[in-house]
Amino acid sequence: MNDISPPMNVEALPLFFSALQQGLKSAPTEVRRLFHGRGRTVAGLEQITCDWIAQHLVVQLFRPVSDEFLAHLEQGLHQLAEQPEHSHIRSISIQHRYEHGAPTQFLLGEGESKVEVVESGLKYWMNLSSNQNSGLFLDMRLGRDWVRANAEGKNILNLFAYTCGFSVAGIAGGAKQVVNIDMARSSLSRGRDNHNLNNQDVSRVKFLAHDIFKSWGKLKRFGPYDLIISDPPSFQKGSFALTKDYQKILRRLPSLLAENGQVLACANSPAVTSDFVIDGMAEHAPELNYVQRLDNPAEFDDIDPEASLKVQLFSL
Asked: Signal peptide location in the record (predicted)?
């Protein structure tokens, strides 16, 4: 999907600051997206987002902006921090995601590599100084909530586990076991930290730092699974490309599932629609029937739902 958004409009910035003011009132204790310009619901602000992360305001720009826009943005953020009701803001940063290395400028405070956040009552570590991967994808909140609500007594497989957010939610919901697999050992290490942060029993959790495509036999030994979660990256150089490799995952799922097992299959690329996974499942795992698509959080509203995160449930 080509991005043909017009340049950002400085005259639209009051809408941005109004959203921040409202967001800081409604969810100051939990991690939240306060403004999602990427959903293209506000004309002139299509390339800016803002997250509230443990008393840190994190603004991201996804395209270059004019000097005038940046000056007004910085001025408005300073004015926000100066308001007495916002004295709890510890830092304000602007991350320039369009530049190599996604450099971050701090208007207030400084970056931290490990901050504790709360989401739906559960705790996670996030990284403010990372150029992209902060440790928790905020648009997946309702997916984690669903897993927590449906985990009781289940054996769960968490493919592409990253920092094990689904695993934390599953154990909180009473899962019998969660098996996490991801090539990045450092991400799994942070996942273990997330479990410990919630005082969870890690003897019920496995952390496998392996290539999924070379580990089907090992994964089968820990099964069968009542629930499999597949939340792959859209693209990971040298290891995974959604449009080319997802089918290899889908065809393996039936052999790993228990009777009446379920699959939560996710795709977060705007280049594919929900039919990409539905059609792929029908072709490569026809035993699995489409049940429903989970909602995304309201704060991630998108003018085109098919361009946003797609979390879809299938069942044997």
From this structure: none
